[in-house]
Amino acid sequence: MRSVKTVAILGALLLAGCASQSHKQHEPRQQTPLTKAPPAKVAQAWSLFTENAAHSYGVDQKLVEAIISVESGGNPTVVSRSNAIGLMQIKASTAGREVYRVQGRRGQPSSAELRDPVKNIDIGTAYLKILQDQSLAGIRDPKTLRYATIVSYANGAGALLRTFSRDRDRAIAMINAMTPEAFYQHVQEKHPAAQAPRYLWKVTTAYRTI
Fold it and tell me: Dihedral (C-alpha) 53, 38, 29, 94: value to the nearest 10 degrees?
């Protein structure tokens, strides 16, 4: 077990070094990162950092790793056309700013911070916690909550809840009346963002293979 963790540390440090040397690199994603690296390998490469962040915030480690796999394929240097940065493809002005606000910090994370794998994972995991404890609070079934968190991470909780009702409490009640499978199907059929159903499918598929 120690040797596996040592390999993971060395791999992570090597990738972090690459990130610092390629800080001006912009790589628009033209294909799903799932074609670049199997989710299990991505999870293993970053397991020390995801384990620490997941434990710190009380978030499912596999969910963090599945999102990393889909968002960046485990490449910490990736920057999207919309300026989402790093392993968890965080936008400083949205998710980054929200995490800073909840943590009592001013402003938003810098691009350099988001290119740092440790900080990127920490901020991304903190954002998942905010979604679950605030925007999606009240969803009782753990599997449904995971599905809702995945969709909200990519497209916002508000857009998801409005597919049920403009009243948040009513939306949560309607979600709680569903099975996880019915909720999943609802997203596939009713979410206004075209990419949301596919994103839910991709992250869920990665989650199952980690």
Answer: -20
Does the pLDDT at position 12 exceed 50? no
Please state the pTM of the whole predicted model: 0.82
User: Per-residue DSSP letters for the chain?
Assistant: -HHHHHHHHHHHHHHHHHHHHTTT------S-GGGTS-HHHHHHHTHHHHHHHHHHHT--HHHHHHHHHHHHTT-TT-B-TT--BTTTTB-IIIIIHHHHHHTT--S---HHHHHSHHHHHHHHHHHHHHIIIIITTT---HHHHHHHHHHHHHH-HHHHHHTT-SSHHHHHHHHHTS-HHHHHHHHHHH-SSTHHHHHHHHHHHHHHH-
